[in-house]
Give the backbone structure.
Amino acid sequence: MNRLNLSYQKMKAEDMVKVCDTITTQPIAVLNVRMNQIGEKGAYHIATAIESGLCKLTQLDLYGNQIGDKGTFHITTAIESGHCLLENLGLSCNDISDESTRYMATAIESGKCKLTELGLNDNRIGDDGARQIATAIESDKCSLTLLSLSNNQIGVEGTRYIAKAISSGKCLLTMLCLNGNQIGANGTRHITTAIESGYCSLTGLALGGNQIGNEGARYIAAAIENAKCSLTQLWLCDNQIGDDGARDIATAIASTNCKLTSLNLRNNEIGDEGARRIVTVVEIDKRLLRQLDLGVNAISSCVSDVISQAVYRRQSIRVAVIQHVTSQQRTRAELSAFLIFSSNCRWLDVVHLIVILVAEVISIDITQLRELDELVLR
């Protein structure tokens, strides 16, 4: 597959003319233009190339180019042209509002859209935008299987629209990312009700940074121990979940109906009691769960030692329990032991450790490195 990576090149709209000549004369399938300055006009040039019928792109990443609503209009018009082959489109961090979601929804429902993966993170999409996207993914002409709307302005009402769509029996989504919105416990209840409906096809769900608290964790727990739930991957980091929520989740994990293989509870308010409950269940139940992240919680070094020993005995699970503490509180050697005590440690674990240690040394809040952290562990 021919790829063209032009990320971080300080490219402007006029530079895209030459790029478009390339993608219409050569069999380029993947174009990465992340973090440039192409703007609306640059998006217009790309859209024109796509509409020409000469472009073979199947993946396009325009992250961080400030194309705005007008630029999105150009791209979606190209998608509706009948000549667009795009299957994977990234429009994150582009100052896109609810106006753009109207264009995108129309394109998705056009019957000519081939997109299976769509990234709209870090924009200005609110409840009305969520409503328009929800209507589109419920259409029998929609082929999306992955939708990412993280770090927008979606609240409880917008979540209700999305929940209705994913429980319609028509939606094909298997992965939904809603990290960093404002859905709270009530929005979580809408999503979990959809998951329990028996018509939801989600296997991956990301709800990090939504202030769902213990109440939201209780709804999540009820969903994952329901036989109709298909979730295998679940992200609940940064959600103010405490020991009560951890206990509910531990009970759910122990259920024979739970299908989770990966669970992220990083950066919550889970203490020793909640951590013990979860790890005890994981150690005893050797069925499915293979990855568990309890890092940056309120877990003492003593309980972290217990967890490390449990991981060593189990050996078939990776557990991260590093806490965000100063070097005076915990030495590098101790930190290393917490993460790589397990005999099945991989180099990715070590890189993850380095990322956290660098944050300690240069006094950066660990949350500022979350994007890098997730990229390393991907």
Summary: The radius of gyration is 22 Å. The first helix runs from residue 15 to 25.
